Amino acid sequence: MPRYVALLRGVSPMNCKMPELQRSLEAAGFTNVKTLLSSGNVAFDTPRAASAATLRKRLEAAMQAGMGRSFETHVRSSQHLQQLIEADPFTAFKLRAGSKRVVTFLREPLKASPIALPRTHGEACIWGLDGAEVFCSYVPEAKGPVFMQLLEKTFGKDITTRTWDTVARCAKA
């Protein structure tokens, strides 16, 4: 059975209970459903391979039916995430000391970056783009996650971002 990971935008423990999310997806026919952390990461199996767009629609409909609301959903195969972790694109970049690595997921792949890369803003840097993934690093600041402003200004709000460690956990789920 193919395994996938859904990365939901805007999920927190205050607006989505993971057991409720899991039950909603199971009721829609997804199997081996496993939620990871409390920030909207869900691994699941399907009887056969499907496109990300098809799975996204099914997942969002399942959330709406089971929870009365849905979250913007980005889908990747577990295999794709495992390959991403193994390739570790961050090794090609010179990160500042104390940097945190994040991956931003786009709904659709881009053939080219809308900006020249690398692009910095304060303590944040967008290093690269590979299809539908953007690789960014930041040094934590007192102002909060300014790197999100850079990402949203560049790629819009139809994105979701995860730490490198979270991507690794999702790949193994």
Automatic annotation (TrEMBL):
Q: Domain of life here? A: Bacteria
Question: Known Gene3D superfamilies for this protein?
Answer: SP0830-like domains
List the protein's name.
Uncharacterized protein (DUF1697 family)
Q: Which organism is it from?
A: Roseateles asaccharophilus
